[in-house]
């Protein structure tokens, strides 16, 4: 059974989109642990990425959703954590493949470059996808963790 609990993190550039996506996720039955930020005041994405990554690393959460303006900074920060496979997803197909082929445990969005409708489609595709294993398993095992 898929977990219905996930974490979210963002910086100031991702705040509005995070709030919209959070409400959407809650409306479809997900419990959301919000690691912040909690306003549009300028902050450093790393301060919110690290707690999300730690929660996924230690098994408190199975997966997460993160965002910043371009998605790059928060994604890079997340991927510095052992066991984190965060994927920068700018459309639904990339999001599904991130889970199916790469077993991504965090889906990162470029908040300034996607609409809310696109963000919903990305998150839905990610959450509904399953890791395919098989030939992909060996590739993932070569990622240093």
What can you see in these coordinates?
Helix content is 43%, strand content 16%. It is of the alpha/beta class. Strands 2-1-3-5-4 form a five-stranded parallel beta sheet, with helices on both faces. It is globular and about 45 Å long. The mean pLDDT is 93.
Order of helices and strands: EHEHEHEHEHH
If you average the pLDDT, what whole number results? 93
Order of neighbouring strands in the sheet with most strands: 2-1-3-5-4
Q: In terms of per-residue confidence, which ranges show pLDDT below 50 for 5 or more consecutive residues?
A: none
From the spread of the alpha carbons, the general shape counts as globular
Number of strands: 5
Helix share of residues? Answer: 40-55%
Gyration radius (Cα, Å) is: 14 Å
Per DSSP, what share of the residues sits in E-state strands of 2 or more residues?
Answer: 15-25%
Largest sheet: 5 strands, parallel
Please identify the structural class as seen in this structure: alpha/beta
- Total helices: the number is 6
Terminal CA distance reads: 26 Å
